[in-house]
Amino acid sequence: MVRAATPFIRILDGADAEAFHALRLHGLRSAPEAFGSSYEEERELGIEDVRRRLDDQPNAVFGAFADDVLVGIAGFAMNTKSKQRHKGLLWGVFVDKDWRGHNLGKRLTEAVIDYARGHVDTLHATVMATNISARALYLGLGFTVFGFEKDALRVNDQSYDDELLRLDLR
Question: Which of 16, 67, 73, 119 is the most exposed place for a label (fewest CB within 10 A)?
Answer without folding.
Answer: 67
